[in-house]
Amino acid sequence: xxxxxxxxxxxxxxxxxxxxxxxxxxxxxxxxxxxxxxxxxxxxxxxxxxxxxxxxxxxxxxxxxxxxxxxxxxxxxxxxxxxxxxxxxxxxxxxxxxxxxxxxxxxxxxxxxxxxxxxxxxxxxxxxxxxxxxxxxxxxxxxxxxxxxxxxxxxxxxxxxxxxxxxxxxxxxxxxxxxxxxxxxxxxxxxxxxxxxxxxxxxxxxxxxxxxxxxxxxxxxxxxxxxxxxxxxxxxxxxxxxxxxxxxxxxxxxxxxxxxxxxxxxxxxxxxxxxxxxxxxxxxxxxxxxxxxxxxxxx
Length: 299
Known about the structure:
Strand order of the largest sheet: 1-2-3-4
Largest sheet: 4 strands, mixed
Order of helices and strands: EEHHEEHHHHEEHEE
Low-confidence stretches: none
Mean pLDDT: 86
Number of strands: 8
Distance between the termini: 54 Å
Number of helices: 7
Structural class: alpha+beta
Helix content: 55-70%
């Protein structure tokens, strides 16, 4: 389960990317601000600290989205919620493109370290104790987010970076399988830490991580099954050039029935709905149905 636009507020659109904020963020923000009295002389600084966390997470997610755009992928939606943020990115089906799309997020946090360190030095030179404490807290928050995200636990950034590196060596399907299994092992370890530290938030986050691992594992198993299917001749994906597998692997968007689009000519046999575009089961990219045809050799 990941956050979606349902139950979220549209904040703004930047560089063609829509930013949404889930309603639950406000509840958690109110709890966090009111439950940390005494750290500053005014609760306003608690609010500033939490809003700064919001900005850091937003910049992190925009790093993912903009990097994905840079390698030719699709990225037009970001949703922020209490457990972080999700940039809905779809990079081209290449390990290098995936690697850059994922690594750009933590890279934003890396670049923020010297910036925040400089602000701490400036605050110590002439700022109030509240300013110094706030900037120091933001520095630690940024470093914590960086270290936590780089844990090699799928679907955290570190786990996805590991998956993209494995993709170079063992291919798309096996890399996802290995990363998902290692992620489940890591999730068990995180759950142990959550119980030991009596951290409710870490426990909730671990549950979502484990669900992401499970989805990755199921996706890897489905990809493995598709790879073993016989292939259609006379067709090839315009993006990755793979021949499409045989079988009812495409679902009609109107009647929700499965069918083999390459047998029916991109027409649903159940409701006669015509589909101008067809998705590739290998790379996941949509292409014009007519573009899949391979021209016969000239005699």
